Amino acid sequence: MKLLVTSFISALYPPLCLHCQEGLLHPDCQLCELCLSLIEFLDPHERCPRCFSLDYSIKLKKCMGCREAAHPFSGIGAAFDYVGPAATLVKKVKYGGQAFLAKTLAAYLVAQFSRLNWPMPDIVIPVPIAFDRMIQRGYNQSELISQKFASLLDCPCENHLERLFGDYSQVGLSHHQRKQLGSARFRLKRNVRIKDQTVLVIDDVTTTGKTLEQCGRALLGGYPKR
What are the percentages of helix, strand and coil residues in the chain, rounded to 5? Predict the structure, then answer.
C-alpha cells in the first residue's frame, strides 16, 4: 500500500531538477542529466597549489599573492566554481534546509581530493558558523559535509574550532570588507590534541580564502604536522 501511494504521488507530482526544475526520470536524483553535465571540476594543474588562485605561474609554482604573503596552511582546494547547478546544490543545503544534499557535496569533494594529490588527513575539522546562523538553520552545513566526507575517507571528524564571541556571518560583505576582517575570529578549543597530525579543514564556500586562513592560524597553536 505504501509503495502504491508513493508511486501515485510521484505520478501526480514528479520530482524536479533542483536547478532547472525540469522533470527527473528517477526520484532519487537531484539534478537532471543536462545540469549534471554542467558541473565541471576545477583543474588543480591550472591553479596555485598553495591558495588555488588562477593567478598562477607554472614556472614559479606559486601565484603573486603567495609570493608576497606567508600562509598558515599547506594548500587550499575547491571542487568547482560557485555557479550554475553546483551553486544551487550548495544554496539548497545552506539556505533551503535540504541537509541531505551534504552527502552529494561530500562525494564531489572526495572526487576532487583524489585529484589534488594531498596526503590523507588524520582528522577533518569543519569551519564553525556564526551563532545566529546556527540558530536559524538548526545545523552547520560545513559540519554535515565534513562528516560525510570523513566517513567516505574513513577518518575522524571533530569540531575542534570555535568562533570567538561576537563574530558574525560574512554573507553580504564585499570582497574588500571580507579582506578587512580581523585576524582572530576563530580559536582552537581547550584540551584538543592535533600535534603532528595532518589536518583538513572544510568550508562550504570560499571567496577570498580569509576564513580558511584564520582557521589555519588558530590551528597552528596545536602544532599540527600539516
Answer: 40, 10, 50
Taking a C-beta distance cutoff of 8 angstroms, is the pair 56, 10 a contact? Answer: no
Answer CATH for 41-220 from 1.10.3300, 3.40.50, 1.10.10, 3.30.450: 3.40.50
pLDDT tens-digit map of 60-95: 677 877 777 778 888 899 999 999 999 999 999 999
- Output the pLDDT for position 56: 74
Characterize 153-176 residue by residue with b for buried, 16 or more Cβ atoms within 10 angstroms of its Cβ, and e for exposed. beeebeebbebeeebeebeebeee
In the chain, at which residue ranges do the beta strands (DSSP E only) sit? 56-57, 62-63, 123-126, 161-163, 186-188, 199-202
Segments making up each domain of the chain, as ranges? 41-220
Over residues 176-213, the pLDDT tens digits come to 444 545 556 899 999 989 999 999 999 999 888 889 99
The pLDDT-based confidence of 155 (bands split at 50, 70, 90) is very high
Q: What is the largest CA-CA distance in the chain?
A: 66
Q: How far is CA 133 from the centre of its chain?
A: 16
